[in-house]
Design a protein that fits this description.
Elements (H helix, E strand, L loop, with lengths): L3 E2 L4 E2 L5 H4 L9 H7 L6 H4 L14 H16 L4 E2 L5 E8 L2 E11 H6 L2 E2 L6 H14 L1 E2 L3 E5 L3 H10 L6 E4 L5 E7 L2 H14 L3 E5 L1 H17 L11 E8 L5 E2 L1 E5 L7 H8 L3 E7 L10 E6 L2 E7 L14 H11 L13 E5 L5 H8 L5 E5 L4 H10 L9 E2 L10 E2 L2
Parallel strand pairs: 6-11, 8-12
Antiparallel strand pairs: 1-5, 2-3, 4-5, 4-10, 5-12, 7-21, 8-11, 9-10, 13-20, 14-18, 14-19, 15-17, 16-17, 16-19
Helix pairs in contact: 4-6, 6-9
């Protein structure tokens, strides 16, 4: 079972939340962040290179120093304040007609080490190192990670009751997504939440934030090694997460665009595809895949449906059955010579939130030659792969909406 605890969040006063809260550090480049950030924006803490002109590299020591300075300054000015007591929080996000309700809590680094916090992606050491520096220098988790857990009826009922009243925060962001936030101040309710996770929830699943999770675990291990009186209960053993029941989450498609056809002309490429796929010209209107093993391709101004032929994939293999695996093996590798999705500069990835029109736009502009749209992975597939100890191919899952940064910060003190 997983170990969790409430915490006293550092967060903005109600009247300042829309000025402080910001998109996550990794969804904006530095120029976009500089243009968006107002005086009180958390972006001055999460992307502090925006305070310089010209902007230095984001790994420059002066950038890290600026982050520390700004975090302290925001607290001195009262733009961020620490709650007087530890509690859990409910964080609701609304996108269109769908709302998902998460619990903001602290998870334990030992659960990551033991595998009770389950991952489905590989991490890159350079990105881990960067996130680790940010946690270490601030002695805080400035931004949360995004976890899922298997539905628990009692937790669902507690969250529903806690979110029935007036929220502490209630605003709509620049993308039209709603964000609401409730502290749970009843001690008995907080104690019951802790007990349910301790006794009834067997695992967390990393949905988004693999690098931040790994970095938090490394900082915890580092502080443990420095403390001869370590007990495992110290605040540095815990890190901040927003945890959602699996039934409320929806994974969006994560699509691919490629710069060339690896020396083939369009007719040769389509003929080669026909070996492993049933290919059909769907015309100039956008075509959306409607089921597993069906793909959409945009090439030469036309959309095509691509149905993988039987025998070209293994439904008994949790990785082999994934459409990202089928496309990688039978098209990207076999025909286009793209061996490593992490490093090959000929391929790029487009999250489903941008729509399939973004795929045709990038091809029509001449930037790319061909685009592929995939049917999204399900939460049950993600959890089955994590349970089996397997790792998904790169760029498989896209979760939306993203967690807003700045609604809660967890101090390691």
């Amino acid at each position: 079972m997983v170990r969790v605890k409430p915490f006293a969040a550092i967060r903005p006063p109600k009247e300042l939340v829309t000025e402080v809260a910001a998109p996550p550090y990794d969804v904006l480049n530095s120029l976009e962040a500089k243009e968006m950030a107002g005086e009180k924006s958390l972006l001055h803490i999460t992307k502090p290179e925006i305070d310089f002109d010209p902007m230095p590299e984001d790994h420059d020591p002066v950038v890290y120093d600026e982050a520390v300075k700004n975090f302290k300054l925001w607290q001195t000015r009262g733009w961020l304040k620490r709650d007087p007591k530890e509690c859990y929080y409910v964080y609701a996000q609304t996108m269109g007609e769908r709302t998902q309700y998460g619990l903001v809590l602290c998870a334990h680094t030992d659960d990551y080490a033991s595998g009770r916090i389950k991952k489905h992606e590989l991490t890159r050491k350079d990105k881990e190192d960067d996130r680790m520096v940010h946690v270490r220098i601030q002695n805080a988790n400035i931004e949360p990670v995004f976890f899922a857990y298997k539905d628990n009826a009692e937790l669902n009922a507690i969250v529903a009751k806690a979110s029935a009243g007036e929220p502490e925060y209630d605003f709509v962001d620049e993308n039209g997504f709603g964000h609401r936030f409730w502290p749970i101040v009843d001690q008995a309710v907080n104690d019951r939440i802790t007990a349910i996770f301790t006794n009834d929830v067997d695992a967390f699943y990393v949905a988004d934030g693999h690098h931040r999770t790994a970095a938090a675990a490394r900082v915890g291990a580092e502080k443990k090694a420095q403390n001869p009186n370590h007990t495992g209960d110290e605040e540095y053993n815990f890190f901040m997460a927003v945890c959602f029941p699996e039934s409320q989450l929806k994974i969006l498609d994560y699509n691919r665009v490629v710069k060339d056809l690896n020396g083939l002309d369009p007719e040769e490429f389509k003929a080669a595809l026909a070996t492993d796929f049933v290919l059909r010209d769907e015309g100039t209107e956008v075509f959306h895949p409607s089921k597993l093993h069906e793909f959409a391709m945009y090439l030469g101004g036309h959309w095509y449906s691509m149905q993988a032929k039987p025998g070209r994939y293994d439904d008994a293999d949790p990785i082999g059955v994934l459409d990202v695996t089928i496309l990688s093996n039978l098209v990207l590798d076999k025909l286009l010579g793209i061996k490593d999705l992490r490093t090959d500069k000929r391929i790029d990835f487009v999250g489903g939130i941008r729509g399939l029109g973004e795929l045709s736009r990038r091809v029509d502009s001449g930037e790319m030659k061909v685009a592929f749209a995939l049917y999204p992975v399900s939460m049950s597939q993600l959890m089955a792969i994590a349970d089996s100890g397997n790792i998904m191919p790169p760029k498989t899952t896209w979760f939306e909406p993203k967690l807003r940064s700045g609604l809660a910060i967890h101090s390691l003190d």
